[in-house]
Fold each of these.
Amino acid sequence: MIFSMNVYIRKNTSYYHPIIYVLKIIEKNRNVIFNIKNSSAEAEIIWDHKNIKSEVLAYDFFDSIKNGSASLKHSEVFLTSPNVTDKNENVDKIASIFYMINSLQEFNVEKKDLDDLGRFKYSSSYQYRFNNINENLVETLINNFCDEHSINGNKNDSVFFISHDIDRLYGSFFEDGFWALKKMKIGTMLNIILAEISKDYHWKNIDKIVKINDMYDIKSTFFWIVNKGKSKSGIENADYNISDVKDEIKLVDESSNVNGLHKSSFDMSIDEELKKGKFENKYNRYHYLKFLPHKHYKEISNSSLNFDSSLGFAEECGFRNSYGKSFQPFDIKNGKPYDFIETPLQLMDRTFHKYMDVEVDGIGDRIINMYEQNPKNCDISLLWHNNYFTDYKYGSFIKEYKKVVEFIYESKIGCVTPDVLVKNNYLSW
């Protein structure tokens, strides 16, 4: 029997739809039902700023959301802790959840908060300010809310979402070659040169990735760039033509893995790129994680996409929106969720390697530890690029990937593709 509870929310208020949205998130999170009643007399939980029995209600905060106020900056909202509070400094758990899930700290982002690629910097975030990037704060708030109201429900087992961004296929000659030259590995240099001459490109290794995934019964998603070369802004996109990798895309399609779009920085719409790549699946991740939620959510909603996985910090692993689950972002202007699922990206090989300077032989354990810290209600999203499945410069990384997928296999943890995440996290509205 599914647990249910009656609730009342005053209509025609700035908080009505946001609270319903959060309650639907909790329904998914706990497998419970909230019955929206027309009268507070029928309800066990009340949100009504005119009712003394109301839950804590950060009324001014919800008005700020509706009006698009500049005061939504986290430095203005989270004064002493990562919580939204009312005038009396009482924590409004529902408001806090809404703020975090929907990345409202980035709602009025300023130029100083962005890096050279126009990405929201980790150092500009409240996660950096409060040192809580690895904390699933939304899950904690949901737990506290449910405990306070004796809401019983079943938590869902966490799953892995594994993906591979295919940025470059022909980089081995220069990157591996320079590495071999620097290390004075003459034999390796010769192998790299011979591979280049014979067009046996070391990074063109989709078959190798598929084989490893099959070995451990892993399903993953391959994101492809359809535009080659530099965009007008000078950003490098693919080093391959999408028409030249038909066999690789077909190989993925014929396996248990799936393909999706890796949106380029070219002035081409999402749907134009989907058409160019002939992708049937409407899945996407923005190249370089060049992604600002409140700009690109609108772009996604105007396309045929039903799934995106771009919400992550390039320079730090963890929870960019303090939530471990896939979700439908909320369209503030229209007062309802957008019609697609966002799966945040928490873990990336390049982040560990380039930005965090983590020892390679500790990466696998860090990823496993994230799962062990979040065994329930978390979609653990891991990105592992194709060049990190290779020998030479990145040769030590493949062992760490195998350590993770072996752990998933032996622990019988679910490993899902976007279609499952869409199905499991879509809200009835």
Amino acid sequence: MKKNIYLSAFLLVTSFIVNAQEKPLDVKYRRSSLHTMVVETDKFPKKEVVLNAFNNAPFPEKYNDHQIGVKSFNPNNYPLTNEEKATIYKQSKLASFAKSTAGLGTDSLSKELPLKIQKYLAKEKIANQLVAKWFNRQPDGSFDAELIAERGIFNASYLELKSAESSSDGNALLKTAGFELIDNTFVVINKFNYVANEPIARAIRDAARDAAKDTPALLLDKVNKGIDATYEKTKEGYSIWATSYLYKLVWDEVTANTFYQDFYMEKNSLDPKKKLAFDNSDLFKLEFVGEESASGLVTFSLTEKRTEDQIIELSTIRIVDNVYAKLQKKYDVFKTKTPLFTGNPITAKIGKKEGLEGGEKFEVLEMNQDPKTGAITYKNIGTIKVDKNLIWDNTYNPTNEENNSTPSIDRTTFSGGSKFYPGLLIKQIK
């Protein structure tokens, strides 16, 4: 069975190689794959604008688009049992107070959502769907290696191409793909809230006034004026909140071997039992990696050229980029590799959208392939640092109305030596 898989992959590989020899490839690299979703929460101001902004936003270019069709789910359809609720709720005065504070991250939905997401992922077999997409599963239950071969070659250096060319059965491609492509498949589930600032500012003002009521009379008026001034500064506009939950597809040796042995079949070897077994299998899992949140202030001005909806759209997309950047910084498994654009000066096509502020350190990686096994390894050959004065502002701006000109900087510059060259990969260090 495996030989048939490898042979299919090899035939696809050679077709890509022929084309690549006719026209040299740019520097490519194997990227992680990503499926994104949004939680269908209760109504909030400008909900449709926020959700449409998310759904229509450019897909993160550092990842392969691995969308499986479904873009949202309603957590109310996956209620928790009393036993499940008991694991997350502890009765206390602090918990009661938190539940009453504007619903920002401490409401019942936020507390229960991680468990509801797990129930949703399991019941709807999202992991199965991700695997099915990797192997281009058809309605009859058959698989092929076309997508794996395409991504493995399209995101490959010339060295990898030559190695695959000399391979006798395509084993190197699938071995590398299995643990470098499929094993780096992620799901990010996003929850949004859009909150008017005035009620929150008013509550803070009233609480501050109440706390200051025992202030000596000579000082009370001055204190209250300061409280009112703070209220006036913070009451305008809205705040957009985004919380993103990160999950990773489990693709270990046991899972891979079981898949090839029990479920994999091609068009010429259909087996209804294997089709049914895959449909009902609980083998495939998504493991929780972590979560991050980000927020942004949305204000409107009479001098603003954009419409109110356009401002909300812009803020939403930038906040999503921000929370993704936080996930990448915090969790090594989700960090992306980026090729150097130039070696002298040292530059790369990343910037403020990826959370760069200046001084961040990146390891420089040289990709090597074993000529016998085809296995890919990455060797650390140095460290570079972001120049805070030469950071590319690549944050989302669909119309470029802010400057009406081509940006003076279209890449970020690093310091750290002169031995590096275009195509080497860089990965941020904590």
Amino acid sequence: MRKTVVKINMDDTFNVDGAEILRLDCKTQMSYTFWTNNLRHLYRMPHQFQNEALDMFFISLAVYYCDLKESRSDQPDNWTRVFSIFMPVLEYDKWLNLKRLLENALRFLTGDVWKFSFRKRKYSDYELKAKAGIEKYKKNKIQATTFCMLSGGLDSFIGASDLLSDGEKPIFVGNYNGGKGVSVYQRKVINLLKERYNHDGGYFYQFYAAPHDSCENSTRSRSFMFFSHAILLASAMQNNVKLIVPENGVISLNIPLTTHRVGSLSTRTTHPYWMNMLQSMLNELGINVTIYNPYQFFTKGEMILNSKDKDFVAANISQTMSCSHPDLGRYKKETSPSHCGICLPCTIRRAAIMRAGIEDKSIYRDEHYMTPEGKRYLTSYRYGIYLYRNRPADHTFTVMNSGVLYDHIDDYVGVYERGMEELASFLDTI
């Protein structure tokens, strides 16, 4: 079990025998830019951040830190870890009541065992500075009822384009860690959207967060940390906010192609079961944010075909990044991030672009699955399609096996089937 005592205030003297100390007040162990690089942006918030949202933000950073600092390969089953986090919070009673829901939600999201012990804290220096700035600066305040996650990927690009095409003025929130790949493409997408729709650059927020000296790259907890940034900003609106999470239904459902990890989706970042638990936490905390994925029942190809500014999307697909590891090319002395072409997100992307009938101008490191790794991936995908086609005609059990679903079962089954056929059509061309 990894024991971690989190400290947010400089004068926090709490300790536990045998536990590491994670100091989020000085950033010697984890770098994040919410407070340091974006204070002027923060001052444009119309109201103070909600205490409950501040707590969720710091909890998500602590979870993300632990996730990346404990190797799965060192565990008896090569996967499941056990974490015990001693967490200071502003709203102690509320989090005590939510302890089981939080632990269960993270168990589903990451596949690990999480145990939380809460204690009461005061505002940190960063929080007090932000509060003072928000109160002092009265000009150019931002008011929005819609927030949208902006990852730099194709799905989020389409989601952003659709919102702006409808005349909405959302606040976009991006988050990156590690190499240049994600941040570079987020900035590309931001610039494209600003130019196309004349959207105020002040409505784009981009944050960095990563622990120092990580040893694990599965990063299943990233979505919690990613969403918490947006939720924190949204809490300052002091009205009902819709948080758009643009993700195609195939990736969202996270249904493995095969029993082999190489052929499975790597995360549960937007699975409906996890999203429902996160929404329940927001409701119980009194944070007026509703999470919504308008593309839950679309394949990636259908998202392209149904985009509201299709010509703009089609012309700029190559400016988006879908790859799960865009920076690996640096080991081959490549000067810029690129798609590997063979991971499942890349493969689903390529299948979607073919489905939409658009010329794919993206650069893929292994376009034809010719490397030894590419051949292994391709074999796994083809085997997955074989298994899919030889299962019983009713795929309800397959869909439900990836996570609990309470409604719209037929719709989930439908998007899964259409997504598999979309993938199969592409694989037939390789």
Amino acid sequence: MPIITHILLYIAYATISLTVGLALNQIGGQDIGGSFLGGIALFCACAVTHSSISASAAAGRIGSTEKRITRDMERLRTAHREVTADIDAVQARLDQIETQIAFGVPQSPPQIEAPQASGGQIELKLIDQIVDKLGAAMDARLQTIQAAGNVTPIHGGPTRGPMDLVREAILENRVELHLQPIVQLPQRKTAYYEGFTRLKDATGRMILPQEFIPAAEQAGLMSTIDNVLLFRCVQIVRKLMKQDRRIGIFCNISPSALADEAFFPQFLDFMRENRDLAGSVIFEIPQISYDSRTSIEARAMAKLVDLGFRFSIDRVTSAEIDLPDLERSGVRYLKIPVNVIADQIIRGGVRPRSAITREIAAADIAAVFQRYGIDMIAERIESEEAVLEVLDLDVPYGQGHLFGAPRAIKESLMEETAPPRDFLLKGGGRVA
């Protein structure tokens, strides 16, 4: 109700009250004081009644407004879900195409028009066409491959142990490269891949990492396995670059490889020949290995950093990170599992060590990391609820089975990216 209406009504109440007061004095025989009090009482009663009616009307209008806002918000949520679904559908198609190119996954029977289906076939064919000779550095190595007789074959038998299986897998080219996407958030566009080593036995059975890694470390073969992984990653990156695809690969490297005096010089020479890939090949080591690194391993890391290569820390168990130390060591990525983010950063109040003296809010953690040139990657993301948690913290990248499981590269690429035998030789011409 307009304010002028309220004023006019109150004037009317005053007029009526005055009239009643005069009537009580003239007609009712009341004295002036009694007549005045009667008029005031009447005016107050009118005012109270008016206020009650006005409050009820206002409450009704507020309730109606709230209901209208609630309906509008629900319509907005529905529209947002529809738009999000459309975006996810488009992104899923893009990811499907990307997967077809990277891994050679056969396309399912098309449900779309023929021109689009033929386009997908062209994409699948393109990967075969771009598989060509290695770069000059790699060509030189291939020309110097040593004869197979330089490697002592392993004779299988019923007493073969895990170390024998690892040796056989290396010598018979049964070391596979599996790639898992690392996506940019919130768009979920693939920005990087992480390379995983997978071994197979003679029957084709996959040997799990928890089976072969202890045996490989005991036999001193982790350096050789790292070499195979690196060789494949370098070549995959080169092929992607020829498509002008700016996608990098995270390559796991063991501390023993960094400290291996026989392996690391060869490793460093290889990376020096391929230093143009410094922006696309990222070396990754676990947090526990980084924290316990020896002076030899630290110097090896520094030599790779001097060539322009970067490092990533994964398997983070404590969010209390020394950011200046990471910056000095050439670490540019930090992979933190979503459970560590939730338990320590969000609910536990754990904060990284930095030059910032003020208390850091959880929502500012990613920004503080970026001040030191470090990007956070939330890993082991398995659900949409986990995505929402990391989005609230502005974490720029995510990794996990929700976005894609590790998948083997296509068989033809596996064969063409197999390292030459001189890459498998150590010491006296034998795989150690």
